[in-house]
Amino acid sequence: MASVTFDYVKKKYGEVEVLHAISLDVKDNEFLVLVGPSGCGKSTLLRMLAGLEEISDGKVYIETRLVNALPPRDREIAMVFQDYALYPHMTVEENMSFGLRLRNTPKEEIDKRVAEAAQILQITSYLKRTPKQLSGGQRQRVAIGRAIVRKPKVFLFDEPLSNLDAKLREEMRVELAKLHQKLNATIVYVTHDQVEAMTLATRIAVMQGGYIQQIGTPSEVYSRPANLFVAGFIGSPTMNFVNGYLEQEADKLYFKNDTMKVLIPFAIPLANDKIDYKSVVLGVRPEDIFIERVLDKKLSDVINVDVEVVELLGHRKNVYLTAGEYRLLATVPASFNKNPGDKMFVWLNLDNLHLFDKKSGVRIN
Amino acid sequence: MADKDLELARLENDRQQRRDKIKTLILHVLLILACVVTVYPLLRILSVSLRPGDKLMSTSLALIPEGASLKAYADVLTTTHFLRWLWNSLLITVVTSFIGVSLASTAGYAFSRFRFPGNKLGLTLLLGTQMIPAGMLLLPLFLMIMRLGLINTYIGMIIAYSVSSLPFSIWILKGYYDTIPRSLEEAALVDGTTQFGAFYRIVLPLSTPALAIAFLFNFTSSWNEYLVARVVLSDSARYTWTLGLFELQGQFLTQWGMFAAGSLLVTIPVLAVFLYSSKWLISGLTLGSVKG
């Protein structure tokens, strides 16, 4: 297995630059997930690593080898495509062994590797079938099998689960996590699904508009999002954002607006002239809005809200609340018994507040 | 109320069924008419080819004429160079078809997959050549072949036929390649092929229906061609069957029996090629390769 390095990599289509000087290190045996909305450049970055897109500027290394000018076949990578891309005129076995046959691998070795991969992916009984005789999930397994048998240095996955239905996607997600443990492989995985990113990744790189917005472990990205975009993109349901300003009262700092006054329990470098303290955004995750006082938590002052909509999810409820002009979403236990139109009190968990500069979107705390 | 509704629905259903029946009937009458119009001339030729020599000008409409014999067939095969002409045609047609399909398959791939200056213009020009009547091309084609010193040669014929059917074949194949997902070739590239390898090992095997159609088109158009052959070939030993059969038409006497027998015999190779290639004309070969 190997590491991957992107060094100031750019991609231009004519005059339009779609990837802006991306620098990123993927460590040996790491499961790195590139996540972002459609058109953010994540697939392009992956395809540049695969050799399927030209690199306009910058350098890409696999281990210490510069691969910019190498064709895909010489990069020792294997790729799983979003649409499976199985060769329809070949059986499952031929699909899986295609790369090995091209490299003149001895037949016994090919048979051994195909059998091993088929066993890991539980597709042994389909080896003689053609792709059209398989279901979506089975085809995806074959596509993964085709990558495994090659024993590449780096595995590339381009939204491999996006064509599967929800239940199958969940199953395959677990399979992929197990596969990573078993193969101990370096994996670069592209997805727009933040749940996939959170559950599979060793580290996540969140992308938007051709830039990497943040790189970190799933828990880092979730608990300390670097900016408003990452805060809004990672986490389901999404974070609540409330506009306001910061004001010092006595020796305490408060976030304020027409309907809220929230104590800011951490120190902020007020001498930063890049940040406008008169215009900030407070971010609160839905699980950090409490409907009753919890003694062992540091909570804000009470906030008056109206219940707008209640959604039952089974074990939890999503409650849409309004506090003046602001809308808040709280996830609460299923026993919550208020109805739309009811008035109630909520408290914010002061330990998990996120403050962002409104103009630049950058995290303040 | 409900009964009335039910009755109305039943009436409407009956009316619909009657309309459907009438439609089917009209359709079948039209189809039968089309069949008759298509098949009748062939049957007349068959009938003429079976007539004994003294009844060639008979006005009888009988399919199998009185005193039917296969003499015309025997005559055309033994007293003329018919087999030679057939061989010439077959040689030129088969070589033309292979060359045409090979060139069109690679050119179509380039037009389908690569961006290069003149891609769209090239395709439009190729289509444009199809708008020019074949007669107009005769003189330039003749001059070119003459300058190349290829008059009265098989190679001259093969070049003339290959280039004239190339544009259509390129369009057919380009259109088909466009429907093959690029990710298949990308997967092959990552698996270890070159770009040509991806074309040869993945795209070509998946394009058999389009290749078969292009081959058939090349085959039938070269097989039946008369005008270019008339211009390029002068030696009767090199004649294709179209020229050869025309030879049978004399100034004072046309041997209609042999003419008809020859006409029927030349349909056999085309029919054989068509029947053989029909098994390749199965579309939907790419089903199951990508998400479906």
Question: What is the CA-atom radius of gyration of chain B, in angstroms?
Answer: 26 Å
Q: What letter string, H or E per element, gives the SSE order of chain B?
A: HHHHHHHHHHHHH
Mean pLDDT of chain A: 91
CATH architecture of the largest domain in chain A: 3-Layer(aba) Sandwich
- Report the total helices of chain B: 13
| CATH evolutionary superfamily of the largest domain in chain A | P-loop containing nucleotide triphosphate hydrolases
Please estimate the helix content of chain B.
over 70%
- Characterize the quaternary organization of these chains: heterodimer
Number of extended strands of chain A: 20
What is the strand content of chain B? under 5%
By DSSP, the count of extended strands of chain B is: 0
CATH superfamily of the largest domain in chain B: MetI-like
How far apart the termini of chain A lie comes to 38 Å
Rg estimate of chain A, integer Å: 25 Å
Please provide a written account of the structure.
- The complex is a heterodimer of chains A (365) and B (292).
- Chain A has 365 residues and is an alpha+beta fold.
- Chain A has two domains: 4-233, Rossmann fold; 240-357, Nucleic acid-binding proteins (OB fold (Dihydrolipoamide Acetyltransferase, E2P), Beta Barrel).
- Chain A contains eight helices and 20 strands.
- Chain A has helices spanning 42-50, 92-102, 107-121, 136-148, 166-183, 194-200, 218-223, 228-233, and strands at 4-13, 16-26, 31-35, 57-62, 65-66, 77-80, 154-158, 186-191, 203-208, 211-216, 240-249, 252-256, 261-264, 280-284, 289-290, 303-312, 316-323, 326-333, 343-348, 354-357.
- Chain A has a six-stranded mixed sheet with strand order 6-7-8-3-9-10, sandwiched between helices. In chain A, strands 13-12-11-14-20 form a five-stranded antiparallel sheet. A five-stranded antiparallel sheet of chain A has the order 15-19-16-17-18, with no helix packed on it.
- The radius of gyration of chain A is 25 Å and the shape is elongated.
- Chain A starts with a strand and ends in an 8-residue tail after the last strand.
- In chain A, 40% of the residues are buried.
- The mean pLDDT of chain A is 91.
- With 292 residues, chain B is mainly alpha-helical.
- Chain B folds into two domains: 2-69, no CATH class; 72-291, MetI-like (MetI-like fold, Orthogonal Bundle).
- In chain B, α3 (82-113) packs antiparallel against α9 (208-223), α6 (154-178) packs antiparallel against α9 and α7 crosses α8.
- Chain B is flat, with a radius of gyration of 26 Å.
- The relative contact order of chain B is 0.12.
- Mean pLDDT of chain B is 88; it is low at 284-289.
- Classes of the chains: A alpha+beta (365), B mainly alpha (292).
- The A-B interface holds A 50-52, 71-73, 77-79, 81-89, 98-99, 102-103, 130-134, 136, 139, 146, 150, 163 and B 181, 183-184, 186-194, 197, 202, 205-206, 285-292.
